[in-house]
Design a protein that fits this description.
This protein is an alpha+beta fold and 570 residues long. It is 31% helix and 20% strand. The strands form six sheets. Strands 1, 2, 3, 4, 5 and 6 form a six-stranded mixed sheet that branches. The longest helix has 20 residues. The protein starts with a helix and ends in a 5-residue tail after the last strand.
Length: 570
């Protein structure tokens, strides 16, 4: 008995030491300052340290950092990598604190590791009241990896176990009992669901297909470490949702995103979306929607397009990041869906048709479609006012129209159009392009390190600008040296880098939010990124930096032009 107590207290002591030295998501530190109370802000997330982008970085954000570190308030919120450029991932962008939060983890932002910033934009702070450097000096002992392995061995051995977890399949075709340690489970908040009402056992019900993965799930409650594969991701995700383990749920959602490009029929993508909706997992739901939006041009031509639910169709059409040949092509695809789903409720049908951005369709095409659309006579009461709105957009100038409409309304915002009218495709796997230009011909230069090409678009989608064109210059640089050879500073963390510039007289009424569409294996869209200050850095094709990683270099890049009216009507 005495030996048992000694082992228990020793175990508690080791766990306490591990907890004291473990970093938590949202922890911060200052680096590269000339005093302990200033420096580049680095934040911890998902097992690694990274930096913060200075977009929106202000004194309220800096206050939270300084107080977290034990100083007073901040005296300065500093950007532009004033304390030097960091390395590793950029963890946060668009941080929005009100200044009262105890940690950056409780502030608003674009999300963990969601960014298109460069390390030249790393944020820094200067805090009040510098601490004594010697008093603040810490020495770290980290043997947590060894201890995690020890916990796994303890679980497998069942030595001195005192809590039973009974696992049965829903159809009772299989069952298994695990003898576990109440003490270890009690130290993990994720295992609270097991230890209720002083019970000595718990029964888990799982689907038959998930039965083989239960042991991995329980082992995770011991060690906080798990390997998730493509076959186990959905089952582990289901168990994480059922028992409220948010970190495992989010991680499995990211793994599931790896499955989506593997199915060209789109059946898997729709299945996962419906599953996400059923369990109210908005994170996984958005991943599925993003893939369907980015690959909408292929999706609309698949057999599965006609089978999607009205709810999925409504969620998809609400997005501006749909990659499609044109708005007219999307209208025609919706018509096919309407004909195939003619029992849809009238109000739902009205909502879906209202999500088409008719203003983005040229007037002559609108006129022709009035007679070509099968659904026009059936839904003329819905379509007629939408046609009128579109014609107003095409015939009324910015100043007058802006007095009556809100240009930030989605109906006046272009999606990502792939037609030659609004884009240019650079295919790295071939010297030819979709514009049928050959290297060294007029307007196009190519070598293995760099590409430059010129093309033209209209100045704006409105018919008023039909005779006004813009010349665009698209470039691709495979390395920093090739970029510098063309006179750019090229201070980017990743290469290749793409640039897009224009030659035209500035019009304050028009702004451009251009995007680059990155295509993997000439098969699917793996990433879409905006041009910032005329440049877009291609992210690494791996799990951590891309939602839908590509196992090889991107095969094609489409430069998409997106002009819109500036300003919002108050």
């Amino acid at each position: 008995m005495r030996v048992c107590c000694l082992c228990t207290w020793l175990l508690l002591l080791i766990i306490r030491i591990e907890a004291d030295y473990a970093f938590r998501d949202g922890d911060v530190r200052l680096s590269n300052g000339n005093k302990p109370n200033n420096g580049r802000v680095e934040v911890y997330y998902d097992g690694q340290w990274g930096t913060i982008c200075d977009d929106g970085w202000d004194i309220n954000d800096a206050d939270v950092v300084c107080r977290f570190l034990g100083y007073g308030n901040a005296t300065k919120a500093i950007g532009n990598a004033a304390f030097g450029s960091g390395s590793g991932p950029i963890i946060l962008e668009g941080v929005e604190c009100d200044g009262t939060e105890s940690s950056l983890a409780f502030c608003g932002s674009k999300g963990w590791k969601v960014t298109d910033c460069q390390h030249s934009e790393d944020a820094g702070v200067e805090c009040e009241g510098a601490l004594d450097p010697e008093a603040d000096k810490l020495y770290l002992l980290d043997q947590s990896r060894e201890f995690s392995a020890t916990l796994v061995r303890l679980f497998q051995s069942m030595w001195l176990c005192d809590f039973y977890i009974h696992v049965v399949t829903r159809n009772e075709s299989g069952s298994k009992t695990f003898c576990t340690h109440q003490l270890i489970l009690g130290l993990n908040n994720n295992a609270d669901f097991l230890l209720k009402d002083n019970a000595t056992s718990y029964t888990m019900q799982v689907e038959e297909k998930c039965f083989p993965y239960v042991e991995e799930f329980i082992r995770y409650l011991y060690s906080k470490k798990i390997e998730v594969g493509l076959h186990s991701a959905r089952c582990l995700h289901q168990m994480a949702v059922l028992y409220g383990i948010a970190d495992l749920q989010e991680f499995c959602s990211k793994i599931i995103s790896q499955l989506l490009p593997d199915d060209p029929t789109f059946e898997t993508q729709i299945d996962f979306y419906n599953y996400a909706v059923s369990i109210e997992d908005t994170f996984l739901e958005d991943i599925c929607l993003q893939y369907l939006a980015w690959n909408c041009e292929t999706f609309t031509k698949s057999d599965m397009w006609l089978t999607v639910s009205a709810g999925l169709m409504e969620a998809l059409l609400s997005r501006s990041d749909i990659v499609i040949e044109s708005e007219l092509a999307l209208l025609q695809a919706l018509e096919n869906w309407i004909i195939s789903n003619n029992n849809t409720k009238p109000q739902t049908m009205k909502n879906l048709i209202g999500m088409i951005r008719f203003a983005m369709i040229p007037p002559e095409s609108l006129y022709k479609e009035k007679y070509n659309l099968t659904v026009y006579p059936l839904h003329e009461m819905i379509l007629y006012p939408l046609y009128i709105q579109a014609m107003e957009f095409h015939t009324v100038g910015f100043e007058i129209l802006g007095q009556y409409v809100n240009f930030s309304d989605s109906k006046y915002v272009p999606r990502i159009y792939t037609s030659l009218t609004w884009s240019y495709l650079y295919n790295r796997t071939s010297l030819y392009t979709n514009n049928n230009y050959y290297p060294y011909n007029y307007g196009y230069y190519y070598n293995q390190y760099a590409m430059q090409y010129s093309f033209q678009t209209s100045k704006h989608p409105s018919f008023l600008f039909t005779s006004q064109s813009v010349s665009w210059y698209a470039s691709f640089y495979s390395s920093q040296q090739s970029c510098m050879n063309y006179g750019h500073s090229c201070l980017f963390d990743n290469f290749p880098v793409l640039s897009l510039t224009a030659q035209f007289s500035q019009d304050p009424s028009i702004l451009y939010e251009n995007k680059v569409v990155m295509i993997c294996k000439d098969s699917y869209v793996a990433h879409v990124q905006k041009f910032k200050d005329n440049f877009a850095s291609v992210p690494s094709s791996n799990f951590s930096s891309s939602v839908f990683p590509c196992s090889s270099e991107y095969s094609s890049y489409r430069y998409a032009i997106r002009p819109m009216y500036a300003g919002v009507n108050d």
